[in-house]
TrEMBL record:
<protein>
    <submittedName>
        <fullName>Phosphatidylglycerol/phosphatidylinositol transfer protein</fullName>
    </submittedName>
</protein>
<dbReference type="InterPro" id="IPR033917">
    <property type="entry name" value="ML_PG-PI_TP"/>
</dbReference>
<dbReference type="Pfam" id="PF02221">
    <property type="entry name" value="E1_DerP2_DerF2"/>
</dbReference>
<keyword id="KW-0445">Lipid transport</keyword>
<dbReference type="InterPro" id="IPR014756">
    <property type="entry name" value="Ig_E-set"/>
</dbReference>
<dbReference type="GO" id="GO:0032366">
    <property type="term" value="P:intracellular sterol transport"/>
</dbReference>
<comment type="function">
    <text>Catalyzes the intermembrane transfer of phosphatidylglycerol and phosphatidylinositol.</text>
</comment>
<feature type="signal peptide">
    <location>
        <begin position="1"/>
        <end position="27"/>
    </location>
</feature>
<keyword id="KW-0813">Transport</keyword>
<comment type="similarity">
    <text>Belongs to the NPC2 family.</text>
</comment>
<keyword id="KW-0732">Signal</keyword>
<feature type="domain" description="MD-2-related lipid-recognition">
    <location>
        <begin position="30"/>
        <end position="145"/>
    </location>
</feature>
<dbReference type="InterPro" id="IPR003172">
    <property type="entry name" value="ML_dom"/>
</dbReference>
<dbReference type="GO" id="GO:0032934">
    <property type="term" value="F:sterol binding"/>
</dbReference>
<comment type="subunit">
    <text>Monomer.</text>
</comment>
<dbReference type="InterPro" id="IPR039670">
    <property type="entry name" value="NPC2-like"/>
</dbReference>
Amino acid sequence: MEMIQSKLIVPLLMLISFCLMIVLARATDVKYCDKNTEYKVRVTGVEISPDPVERGERASFSISASTDEAISGGKLVIEVSYFGWHIHSETHNLCEETACPVSTGDFVVAHSQILPGFTPPGSYSLKMKMYDRNKSELTCIAFDFAIGFASSVAAS
C-alpha cells in the first residue's frame, strides 16, 4: 500500500509544481497596434511587477525590445484605458526610461510609478508608442494589466 501511495504522490507533486510554475510565470500578452506594420523596434516581452498592480504601491513595467538601428533619443507616449474608456495620457523622454543612445540589438525600457490609493481596481489597457527624435514612430504596442482590490494605503 505504501508503495502505491509513493508512486502516486511523486507524480502528483510534480504536476502541482508544474501548474504553480505556469501560474507564477504568467506572461503579459503584447499586441502591435498595426499587425501589418514592420516597426523598427520589435517588442519581445513585457513584465509587470507586482501583477496585479497594487493601489498606492510602486508598479514597475519592463519592456524588452530590439532594434536594428541605433536610437539617439525620442519619446514614449502612453495612453491608459479603464474598461475601454481612455482615462490617462503621459509622455516621457525615452532617454529617461532607457540608456541613450540605444545601440543596435536588445534593450529594455523600464518605468515605475506609484499609483494613487484611490485608483479603482479592475482591468486596464495600456498603449505605448515610441518615437525617435524626428518624431517617426518606432513601435506601437498594447497590453492589458490589472489593478487588484488590495491597497496598502487602505490598510494604513
